[in-house]
Amino acid sequence: MIKRDVVFPPGRQALYERNRYSPAIRSNGFLFVSGQVGSRPDGSPEPDLEAQVRLAFENLNAILGAAGCTFDDVIDVTVFIVDPQSSFETIWKVLPEYWGSAPYPTLTGIGVTWLYGFQFEIKVIARLPDTGEG
After folding, report:
1. What are the residues whose beta carbons fall under 8 Å from the beta carbon of 74, sequence distance 6 or more?
2. How far apart are alpha carbons 43 and 39 in whole angstroms?
3. A Pfam family for this UniProt protein (predicted)?
4. C-alpha 63, offset from chain centre
């Protein structure tokens, strides 16, 4: 059995352990990040959608940073959106603040009916920086 190389963002390990999943796993030069939502430090949802999207990206960036990555290292993105028809424009106006410049990562958007009280979730796969270790 392979031992999972888990990456925890600063200060949130207890939240992930309580919910029984890993925020991210390093494997074969890649970082697989679990879906990140706009949760406050106690795990509760940020009620304002625009603020929730920003907080989801901040939570994502904390994990990427803990692994030595930035959003520029992201190669694949999946977003889950509750009621995309009414929330898409609000969400998409926040993305440029975090997305960086072209070329952009691949993207899959999925409309869902429930996200445990959240309206937006983002999960990514990133390439780990080459450390020169060998």
Report:
1. 64, 105, 124, 125, 126
2. 5
3. Ribonuc_L-PSP
4. 8
| Cα–Cα dist 29/106, whole Å | 18
Element (H, E) at 53: helix 49-66
DSSP 103: S
pTM for this one? 0.91
Please, what's the b/e burial string for 94-104 (b: 16 or more CB within 10 A of its CB; e: otherwise)?
bbeebbeeeee
Domains and CATH numbers, the chain: 5-127 (3.30.1330.40)
Q: What is the mean pLDDT of residues 59-83?
A: 97
Q: Give the pair of three-digit tokens for residue 75.
A: 């190669």
Q: Which residue matches tokens 């009414």? A: 86
